Amino acid sequence: MNRRRFLQVAGITTATLALNPAGKAGAQPALVSDRKVADHPEVKGMLIDITKCVGCGMCSVACQAQNGLTSTQNEELDAETWTVVKAVEVEADGEQQKRFIKNQCFHCLDPACASACLVGALEKTPTGAVVYDGDKCMGCRYCMIACPFNIPKYQWDSPFPLVRKCVFCVERLEAGEAPACASACPTKATLFGTREELVAEAVARIQSEPEKYVPHIYGLEEVGGTSVLYLSDVPFAELGFPTDLGTRPLSEYTWAALSKLPAVVIGGALVLGAAYKLSKDRGEEDEA
Predict the structure, then answer these.
(1) In the list 14, 35, 135, 227, which could disulfide-bond 107, CB 3.0-4.6 Å?
(2) pTM value?
(3) In this predicted model, what pLDDT tens digit does every residue of 25-75 receive, in sequence order?
(4) Packing angle between helix 3-18 and helix 261-287, nearest 10 degrees?
């Protein structure tokens, strides 16, 4: 790409970013948490009680069947594995024990992945699911960098790669059904319902058995809250959960950075343009 073409692209990028969905540069779009989840009872979620999970992997099998995925491994997420159950060794009651952790997209209330996507390929739906539109995706993979839980995965071995992750069985949600993983759980370790109901259930379990549970609902406030919540009898840090995320939605930080892009692009274009003009003038002087 020559200098002229670069400046043309920079100008187009500036114009595109300046005309954000709110209609003017620097205007921040409304966030789900700003509108309060309690005011939106249709927002669904899942409550995962780690004390009840036996590691059978039926949730992962159901996820594979529901979404037509081909992977058979069940330890780490990848483009063909959207739900996994991982065994973690912990010390409890003075002895080494295993805990089984179900892992999939947390479906954040204000998803950083969606806020980082420049083309709107990721979107938080009214049902609570964070969904992905591969037709819009330009493959920048900013969503993978933005996600605090390291969830989105890329089809590195595909000639036409997409970003892949759990979409909360959004078709089932819209039909009034629970996600496949929750329906398949034989021990009811994964409960499905409205987020408000699940929070109330989690609080009730902690209050009724305070000696059993850690007094914390993971996902209640982390990064502004998530639609997937966890209960545990072992501190979450010992189970590998990130515990230093804070309670502010990461999308606020993302927007703060993206809102500066028009000025950065304009400034960069001016600097490069001036450098090109200076270089050209010097070349003409040398020829003279």
Answers:
(1) 227
(2) 0.77
(3) 333 333 344 444 444 567 999 999 999 999 999 999 999 999 999 876 667
(4) 160
CA angle 37, 246, 97 (to 5 degrees): 100
d(C-alpha 85, C-alpha 99), whole Å: 10
Cβ count near 278 (within 10 Å): 10
CATH number listed for the domain at residues 32-258: 3.30.70.20
Give the model confidence (pLDDT) of 163-222 as tens digits: 999 999 999 999 999 999 999 999 999 999 999 999 999 999 999 999 999 999 999 999
